[in-house]
Amino acid sequence: MMKTVFFAGKVDRELRCCMLLMEFMLIPDEHREEFFPEIKNGDPYVFSDNVMQRMIMVTDYIKNNLTADDLSETAMAEKAGINRDYFSKGFRNVTGTHYSKWLNMVRLEKAIELMADSRMSITEVAMSSGFQSTSSFNRVFREEKRMAPGEYRALLMPPFPE
């Protein structure tokens, strides 16, 4: 399934693959008693279904509100009604990455989707994706894609024939 999604060539394929991986990573939690009978419910690294649902609600909120004023980890932990440290550990446990890295990846996927619209400037794309500045957008983009946003856009938009 992930291979099919990745090679489908859609601009959001990396985000879709991450979501599939996240779903896959939830399977052992759903069957933890079968896989790990030695784990007790009091284990601090086992998260209740209620906590997981609140974390998923927060990730959905973020994806739909990338330009919200405060998407900090602290604010999202509060939104989920979870202690920040507990939220942080749970988030890393489920996604395999830190919250800030995940947030940048979601913003980056949105930016890539928006770059397909040639009418938006790179600055407009950055701001519409929730980045606070063009320089932070450029830095994150270069770190992940190993090229500038303009170079990437040029690959998306082949020149028109004359």
Give the tags.
single chain, 162 residues, mainly alpha, Arc Repressor Mutant, subunit A
Give the uncertain stretches in residue-range form: none
N-to-C order of helices and strands: HHHHHHHHHH
Number of strands: 0
Q: Approximately how much beta-strand content do the residues carry?
A: under 5%
Global shape: globular
What level of helicity do the residues show? 55-70%
Number of helices: 10
- For the record, give the distance between the C-alpha atoms at the N and C termini, rounded to a whole number: 40 Å
What is the typical, i.e. mean, pLDDT?
A: 82
How large, in whole angstroms, is the Cα Rg?
A: 18 Å
Largest beta-sheet details: none
The assigned structural class equals: mainly alpha
Can you describe this structure?
The chain is mainly α and 162 residues long. It has two domains: 89 residues, no CATH class; 53 residues, Arc Repressor Mutant, subunit A. It has ten helices and no strands. Helix 5 crosses helix 6 and helix 7 crosses helix 8. The longest helix is centred in the first third of the chain and has 18 residues. The chain is globular and about 55 Å long. The protein starts with a helix and ends in a 6-residue tail after the last helix. The relative contact order is 0.10. The mean pLDDT is 82.
